[in-house]
Amino acid sequence: MPGHLPDATGFALTATPAGSAAEQPGTACFATAGPTTAVTLRAGDWLWTGFLVSPAGSTPLPGVATDGPTTVLLAGELYNQDELVRAVGDPKLADAGDAWLLLACLRRYGPHAFRLVNGRFAALAADGGVLVAATDHCGGVPLYLAVGAASVSVATEAKALPTMADGPHGQAVTGLRPLRGTGAVHQVPAGGGVVVEAAAGRPRTRLLRTWTPPLHRRHLPEEEALREVREALDRAVRSRLRTGPAPTAVLSGGIDSSAVAALTASACPGLRTVSMGTDLRDEFREARLVADHLARAHPGPAATGGHTEIRIDTADLLAELPWTIWASECTDPDVVEYLLPLAALYRRLPADRPLRILTGYGADIPLGGMHRDADRLAALDDAVAHDMETFDGLNEMSPVLSGAAGHWTTHPYWDRDLLERLLTLEAGLKRRHGRDKWVLREAVADLLPAETVRRPKLGVHEGSGTTSSFTLLLREHGVPDERIGAAKGAVVRRLYDRLVAGGAHPDEIDLGQETKAALHRPDAPGIEGGTRGT
Ligand code: AMP
Ligand code: MG
After folding, report:
1. Of 14, 49, 57, 15, which Cα lies nearest the Cα of 32?
2. How deeply is 478 buried, as exposed, middle or buried, from its count of CB atoms within 10 A (0-12, 13-18, 19+)?
3. Contact 300/293 with Cβ under 8 angstroms?
4. How far is the CA of 94 from the centre of ligand 1 (A)?
5. Residue nearest to atom 7 of ligand 1 (CA)
6. By C-alpha distance, which of 220, 254, 247, 297 is closest to 456?
7. What residues contact residue 46 under an 8 Å CB cut-off, 6+ apart?
8. Which domains are delineated in the chain?
9. Residue ranges in the chain whose pLDDT is less than 70
10. Amino acid 203: pLDDT
């Protein structure tokens, strides 16, 4: 499979100072599917032992680049290669692969190289005695870390960290939040890296900030704003395409995913689109309208590759709850509700070959699309700023959601450059002429049916009936309506504890039993009294 997916999509490694005794761990538990490679590697002054996951498993050490004292492991991919090649001044690096390009950046800039990179990745780098574990600007590939007395463990999934299996030991890491249920495992913040130096054999850590959501806003004339958004979205889409098999777009028929599908279809032939619905609800007509429009707009050799509808029974959809939490390692019930229908969809795509999937996920956050009631511009901008302050740690963008089914997703709206441009537009360009996400709708209006451009927002959890089915499950367990929200939280946290901290596999989980257990726990606030005896 010549490079249409990242070389590596996950890792779990322990770094110990070279020369100390290090044992190769027996196994690591990843939700990300794909061949696992055992690694024992000298990296700078460190020894790395553990595992990495790669979609193809073709090269001996996928995602690894080494040059003298510098070694890089990259899980994921970069999107501003042109810029980076110019920055390091070596045109040969254009085709060398993302890990080699990142290595050259690290040699030139040190850990600050991560401030230059636009990508979807988690990385571990060693440069002599210095170790850096970093994730991209939005924590797009989540990264976890535990610091022991003489070693540091890092992994793209918390459950894959050796420390998770061995119990909670390890040191606090300044500036990092410990993970629920553990004192020792920390998540590397979005737009952050942890720099480790071994001082007299003991790892010393400091946090390196590489990105932070901008708070300033820009007023642009309408025409200029539309041109900027169109160009930046087009670049974000194109930088996510690779040679090889044609990509897939998950298409709801809303403006966000329709714009991504339209620009992808313009950039490469063969785009396949896929929509999911349930017995309760679907957006099939709306998605089909877009797919047909794109098929007509791209005849002959530029033709699109077809559109598929996948319907999932509500009962089967809810059965994906454990898989969703196992993959995303998310404890937020609202986010889990958004992710559930997508996780279910990814697991029903053809599994015979890994797909590159583009989504419209996340456009609402910088554009305030979910805040339909915030009609004052101040309230809209407050909501945007608040969502950007609180997204970290939710793992909404995690590639493991599709990785559990063997596929790779990428979200153009959270491209670092596009995200910054969308965020910094003043609220009056986001809500304008009585319409939400005005600047996006108008910027792509020429590519889509007029009905699609005007269509009001429907969240994936609403369009698929997920919210209603989760609510129904809890009503069946006797939860009164005013406690449904709290009960959803209790169930999600219970599943997280079993699957992430507890090491259970989602197929071992009996959802009915876990729901009952979650609702009857004495520490489930406001639920206990209402449901006892049901
Ligand atoms: P939304 O909450 O509607 O913004 O959904 C986020 C993204 O998930 C969309 O932009 C689509 O890429 C994808 N998506 C949402 N609903 C569906 C669906 N019913 N079928 C396929 N993909 C969907
Ligand atoms: Mg939608």
Report:
1. 57
2. middle
3. no
4. 33
5. 361
6. 254
7. 15, 16, 17, 18, 126, 129, 131, 198
8. 10-209 (3.60.20.10), 234-316+350-461 (3.40.50.620)
9. 1-2, 57-58, 163-169, 373-375, 522-534
10. 87
Looking at all shown ligands, the one closest to residue 254's CA atom is 2
Q: What is the DSSP letter of 425?
A: B
Query: Which ligand lies nearest the alpha carbon of 248?
Result: 1
CA distance 145 to 156: 9
505 Cα: distance to centroid of ligand 2 (angstroms): 30
Confidence at residue 526, expressed as pLDDT on a 0 to 100 scale? 47
The answer to whether 117 and 78 are in contact (CB under 8 A) is yes
List all residues 6 or more positions away from 333 whose beta carbon is below 8 Å from its beta carbon: 485, 488, 489, 491, 492
- The mean pLDDT value of the chain amounts to 92
Catalytically annotated residues: 361, 396, 457
Output the CA torsion sign for 339, 340, 345, 348: positive
Looking at residue 366, its amino acid is P
What's the confidence (pLDDT) of residue 125?
A: 98
Write down the pLDDT at residue 20: 80
Task: Enumerate residues 6+ apart whose C-beta is below 8 A from 489.
Answer: 333
Q: Are 65 and 85 in contact (CB under 8 A)?
A: no
Return the DSSP state at 140: S
* DSSP states along 240-287: T--SSSPPEEE--SSHHHHHHHHHHHHHSTT-EEEEEEESS---HHHH
Distance CA 519, CA 438 (A): 42
Q: Which residue has the tokens 């999107």?
A: 79
CB atoms within 10 A of CB 510: 10
Three-class DSSP category at 524: coil
pLDDT single digits (tens) 171-186: 788 888 888 877 789 9
Whole-number Å distance, alpha carbon 253 to ligand 2 midpoint, is 7
